[in-house]
Design a protein that fits this description.
about 290 residues; Fructose-1,6-Bisphosphatase, Chain A, domain 1; 7 helices; binds D-MYO-inositol-1-phosphate; binds calcium ion
Length: about 290
C-alpha cells in the first residue's frame, strides 16, 4: 500500500513552482518547434484519437525535468504511461491537452502538469497537491496548490455564485467512440433547450479552468482520463467549485461534472436522469 506523505505549505509551494516551470518549458517547445506540416504520428483508442510527434516530445521533456528534480516520485503521462515511484507522490501529465486543436492550429490547447498523492490510476484514490494548466499561445497560466488557492496569472480566483440551470453556459466534450458520441448527442439534444448554450472548446483542462474563472458556468464530460483533469480539478476546487461524478461517485472516466454548488448538483441530477454515463452501440458505418 502506498504511504501518503504529509506535505506542508512550503513543500506544496515548491511542488507548484516545479509544475509551472515544467509546463512553461514544454509550452515553449510545442509552440516554437511545431513543424510547419504537422501530421498525425499515430492513432490511439480510435481513428479520431490522434497523437503527434510533438505530444511525445513534450512529454519526454516533462519527464526529464520532473525526473531530474524529483527522482523518487512517480510519473503518469498520456503518451508514455506509468512509472510508479517510491515517495507516494505522482506527477500526472498531459503534454498537449487539445491535440486535435493543436493539429489544426486552433489556439486552444494546454500543457497540464499536476502532482498528486495516492494512486492516480484509481478514481477517488488520489488527491491533487499542486497543478498548472498552461496555454502557451495565449500565455494564460492557471495554477493551484492545495489549501493555498487558485490563480490565473497571479490573480486569485473565486467562482461567482452560479446561475440557475436554464441560464448556465455549459461546456462539454465528445468522446472518440461512435457509440459514446451517439449517447452524447442524445444528451445534448435534451439539455440544449433547457440551458443558456453549449461550448465545445476541445481542451478539457481549459474547460475546467474556465469554470474556475467564471467563463463557463458548468462543464461535464464522459471519458476524461486522469491527466485531463488532475491539475484543473485542483484549480476548480481551490476557486470554490466542485468536480465530481454522478451520484456519490468521484470524477472519473464515467463522468466528470463541474460547477459551483448548487448548480453542480442540479446538472449531475439531470445527467443521471438522462443516463448520460452509458454508451450506445457503435454507429453503423462509424469509425470507432
Ligand atoms: C481531449 C480534449 C478534449 C476532450 C477529450 C480529451 P487530448 O484530450 O481534452 O477536449 O473532449 O475527452 O481526451 O486527447 O487532446 O489530450
Ligand atoms: Ca493529450
Amino acid at each position: 500500500m502506498t504511504t501518503v506523505p504529509a506535505v506542508g505549505p512550503g513543500a506544496v509551494r515548491a511542488l507548484l513552482a516545479l509544475a509551472e516551470h515544467a509546463a512553461r518549458r514544454a509550452g515553449v517547445v510545442i509552440v516554437e518547434d511545431r513543424p510547419e506540416h504537422l501530421g498525425v504520428a499515430a492513432t490511439k483508442s480510435s481513428p479520431t484519437d490522434v497523437v503527434t510527434e510533438m505530444d511525445r516530445r513534450a512529454e519526454t521533456l516533462l519527464r526529464e525535468i520532473l525526473g531530474a528534480a524529483r527522482p523518487e516520485d512517480g510519473l503518469l503521462g498520456e503518451e508514455a504511461g506509468h512509472e510508479p515511484g517510491a515517495s507516494g507522490l505522482t506527477w500526472v501529465l498531459d503534454p498537449i491537452d487539445g491535440t486535435v486543436n493543436y493539429l489544426y492550429g486552433i489556439p486552444a490547447y494546454a500543457v497540464s502538469v499536476a502532482v498528486v498523492s495516492g494512486d492516480p490510476t484509481v478514481p477517488g484514490a488520489w488527491t491533487p497537491l499542486a497543478g498548472c494548466v498552461h496555454n502557451p499561445v495565449s500565455g494564460e497560466t492557471w495554477t493551484a496548490a492545495a489549501g493555498l488557492g487558485a490563480h490565473l496569472l497571479g490573480r486569485r480566483l473565486h467562482i461567482p455564485v452560479p446561475p440557475s440551470l436554464d441560464r448556465a453556459l455549459t461546456g462539454t466534450g465528445f468522446g472518440y467512440f461512435t457509440g459514446r458520441r451517439r449517447t452524447q448527442s442524445r444528451v445534448i439534444a435534451d439539455l440544449l433547450p433547457r440551458i443558456r448554450d453549449i461550448r465545445r472548446i476541445g481542451c478539457a483542462s481549459m474547460d475546467l479552468c474556465m469554470v474556475a474563472t467564471g467563463r463557463l458556468d458548468a462543464y461535464f464530460e464522459r471519458g476524461l482520463a486522469v491527466w485531463d483533469l488532475a491539475a484543473a480539478r485542483l484549480v476548480v476546487e481551490e476557486a470554490g467549485g466542485v468536480v465530481r461524478g454522478l451520484g456519490d461517485a468521484p470524477p472519473s472516466q464515467d463522468m466528470v461534472v463541474s460547477a459551483a454548488e448548487p448548480l453542480v448538483g442540479l446538472l449531475a441530477d439531470e445527467l443521471a436522469a438522462l443516463e448520460a454515463a452509458a454508451d450506445a452501440a457503435p454507429a453503423p458505418g462509424g469509425t470507432g
